[in-house]
């Protein structure tokens, strides 16, 4: 072995190791520091020194958690691994929400299914207490096999829903056309696993099979590169030069490649779009559906 080959053979693992630990510390989410378990009487658990959180559901109760912080804009990532096998009737909700009657809310909800049948990823956006903006998707992978990343990029121009980095849905700021946009109310992150077999799977036709209980969903890899609401003020992460790094999401706009990716997802995996549901809106589609 030559000297330089040896150096690089020695250096590479060290470098790789440093890079790895750097990215781990950036991802840095620790469920003990960032979240509170809010209900479920021991059914929600934080494990592995705060690196893993599990929710469970049985006939008596589901469980849930919420973030300690409130956020106003950010890029928020969470990895989820959903209830495997026969998860029909179960719903895993993961969302941001502010408080009160005119609250804002950004939802991911995963509706379980019979073994082998696809989960439905249900999304919605509430502004000033008004929702009715459902879009639903199938996924291009089995979300119960492994962890996948579900992200929200929320800045003053738009909210982008992402799955493993692919944008699947955008809600644009169309305030100038009279559509309210979430930008004044800080939101907490909430998640819960619960029984919704009156509606979740094939419209409530398929009930939860309690023989399979307890049902478990797992979370890891939380990362919030976000403005945190502290004492009535928003504190944003420092922006780095060159537009990447912390805070780059603040003025992010989708480029042509991401637009194409989103069109691909919507064309192939979208199963419901309120903007295409004219029967539901006989007086005309909501304004945001009519603007390109
Ligand atoms: C469950 O699978 C059936 C059959 O493929 C499908 O029609 C349905 O949309 C799936 N999801 C839910 C939540 O019912």
Task: Write the SSE topology.
Elements: H1 3-27, H2 31-34, E1 35-39, E2 45-47, E3 52-57, E4 63-81, E5 90-97, E6 105-111, E7 120-126, E8 135-137, E9 148-155, E10 158-163, E11 166-172, E12 187-195, E13 215-230, E14 233-235, H3 256-269, E15 270-273
Antiparallel strand pairs: 1-4, 2-3, 3-13, 4-9, 4-12, 4-13, 5-6, 5-12, 6-7, 7-8, 8-15, 9-10, 10-11, 13-14
Bound molecules: 2-acetamido-2-deoxy-beta-D-glucopyranose (NAG).
2-acetamido-2-deoxy-beta-D-glucopyranose binds at residues 111, 113, 117-118, 120, 200-202.
Mind describing the biggest β-sheet? Answer: 15 strands, antiparallel
Number of strands: 15
**3D shape:** globular
State the CATH topology: Jelly Rolls
Instruction: Return the CATH class.
Output: Mainly Beta
The low-confidence parts are 1-27
Q: What's the architecture in CATH terms?
A: Sandwich
N-end to C-end Cα span = 62 Å
Radius of gyration: 21 Å
- Total separate domains: 1
Work out the strand percent: 35-45%
Oligomer: single chain
Q: In which range does the helix fraction lie?
A: 10-25%
Ligand inventory reads: 2-acetamido-2-deoxy-beta-D-glucopyranose
Characteristic key phrases:
292 residues, Jelly Rolls, 15-stranded antiparallel beta sheet, 15 strands, disordered N terminus, binds 2-acetamido-2-deoxy-beta-D-glucopyranose
Walkthrough of the structure:
It is a single chain. The chain has 292 residues and is mainly beta. It has one domain (29-290): Jelly Rolls (Sandwich), CATH 2.60.120. 15% of the residues lie in helices and 38% in strands. It has helices at residues 3-27, 31-34, 256-269; strands spanning 35-39, 45-47, 52-57, 63-81, 90-97, 105-111, 120-126, 135-137, 148-155, 158-163, 166-172, 187-195, 215-230, 233-235, 270-273. It has a 15-stranded antiparallel sheet that branches. β9 (148-155) and β10 (158-163) form a beta hairpin. The chain is globular and about 50 Å long. 32% of the residues are buried. It binds 2-acetamido-2-deoxy-beta-D-glucopyranose. 2-acetamido-2-deoxy-beta-D-glucopyranose binds at residues 111, 113, 117-118, 120, 200-202.
């Amino acid at each position: 072995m030559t000297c330089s080959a040896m150096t690089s053979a020695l250096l590479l693992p060290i470098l790789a190791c440093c890079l790895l630990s750097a990215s781990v510390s950036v991802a840095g989410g620790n469920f003990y520091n960032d979240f509170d378990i809010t209900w479920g009487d021991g059914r929600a658990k934080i494990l592995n020194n705060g690196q893993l959180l599990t929710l469970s559901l049985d006939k008596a109760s589901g469980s849930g958690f919420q973030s300690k912080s409130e956020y106003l804009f950010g890029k928020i990532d969470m990895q989820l691994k959903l209830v495997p096998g026969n998860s029909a009737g179960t719903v895993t909700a993961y969302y941001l929400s502010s408080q009160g009657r005119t609250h804002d809310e950004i939802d991911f909800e995963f509706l379980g299914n019979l073994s082998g049948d696809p989960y439905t990823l249900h999304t919605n956006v509430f502004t000033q207490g008004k929702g009715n903006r459902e879009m639903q998707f199938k996924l291009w992978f089995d979300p119960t096999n492994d962890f996948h990343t579900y992200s929200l990029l929320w800045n003053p121009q738009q909210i982008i829903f992402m799955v493993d980095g692919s944008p699947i849905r955008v809600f644009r700021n169309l305030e100038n056309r009279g559509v309210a946009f979430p930008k004044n109310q800080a939101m907490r992150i909430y998640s819960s696993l619960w029984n919704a077999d009156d509606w979740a799977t094939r419209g409530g036709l398929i009930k939860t099979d309690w023989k399979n209980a307890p049902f478990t969903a797992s979370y890891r890899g939380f990362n919030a590169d976000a403005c945190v609401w502290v004492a009535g003020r928003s504190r944003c992460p420092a922006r780095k030069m060159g537009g990447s790094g912390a805070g780059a999401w603040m003025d992010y706009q989708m480029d042509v490649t991401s637009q194409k990716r989103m069109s691909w997802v919507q064309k192939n995996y979208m199963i419901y779009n309120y903007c295409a549901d004219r029967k539901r809106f006989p007086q005309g589609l909501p304004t945001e559906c009519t603007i390109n």
